[in-house]
Amino acid sequence: MLVKKLVRYYRKKKLNAFISKVFKNLNSTVCHGPFKGMKYIKRSYGSGLIPKLLGTYEQELHQVIDQIISTGYQNIVDIGCAEGYYAVGFALKCRNKPGFRVYAYDINEEALQSLKTLSALNSVSDSIIPGACCDYKDLERFKNTKTLIFCDIEGDELSLLDPAKAPSLINYDLLVEIHDSGDEAGVIKSQLKHRFKKTHFIQLIQYTSRSISDATAITHTANVRLRQFAVNEGRKKGMEWMWIKRL
C-alpha cells in the first residue's frame, strides 16, 4: 500500500512539474486556436488545463467558435463556465464590439472566483457578468436581442433548454455539449433536436481522439506519455456537441 502511495505521489509530482514547465515555456498564454493570446491561470475546473493552453481544447469546435466571434452577438450566455476559458475568450475576442457582454454562470463558487481572476488578467472584467445558477427567468432576459447560449451543464441541458418554459430560446443560437449516457443514451440529443428542428439548423459535432502530433507547442520533452497527457481531455468515445443555429 505504501509503495502504491509513493508511486502516485511521485507521478503527481512529475505531472505538476511538467505542467509548470509548459506554463513557463508558453508564458502562461494560449498559443493556438480561436483564443490565441489569452493569458491563463494555473487552474481548471472539470476539464484539462494543458489542452487549453495549447489551444487544442475542444478543437472540434474551432470553426464554430470562429463563426460565433465574427457573427456580432450582443450577448453570449455561458452556462457552466467553470474558470472562464470560453467566457473570457469570447470577451477578449469581441472586446471591440460596443455593448457586448458575456453572462457567465457556474454553481461552483471557487470556479467563479477563478473566472474573476482570469477576467482581470485579460482586462475584460467589465464585459463579463458572473452568476451562480441560470434559470428560465435568466434565459428570458435576453429576448429581442442577438444572443448565443453556450451550454455545458453535465446533463441538465435537457431540463434547462426547453422553449416551452423559456420561449425566447427559439430566437437564440445555441452551442450545447450533449451528455447522453446510461440507460437513456440518446434521449437528450433526440429531445433537443425535436424542440428546435422547425426553427433552427442543427449540426452534430463529434469528438475525435487526440494524438501526440497535436502537442506541437511542447518542445521541451520527447516523453510520449507526457505529450499524450498534455492533449488528453479525458472524454469518452462518441461524445458530441450540438450546434443549433436560427434559420
From TrEMBL:
Q: Which InterPro entries match?
A: SAM-dependent_MTases_sf
Gene3D superfamilies found in the cross-reference section: Vaccinia Virus protein VP39
Question: What name goes with this protein?
Answer: Methyltransferase FkbM domain-containing protein
| Highest classification ranks of the organism | Bacteria, Pseudomonadati, Bacteroidota, Chitinophagia, Chitinophagales
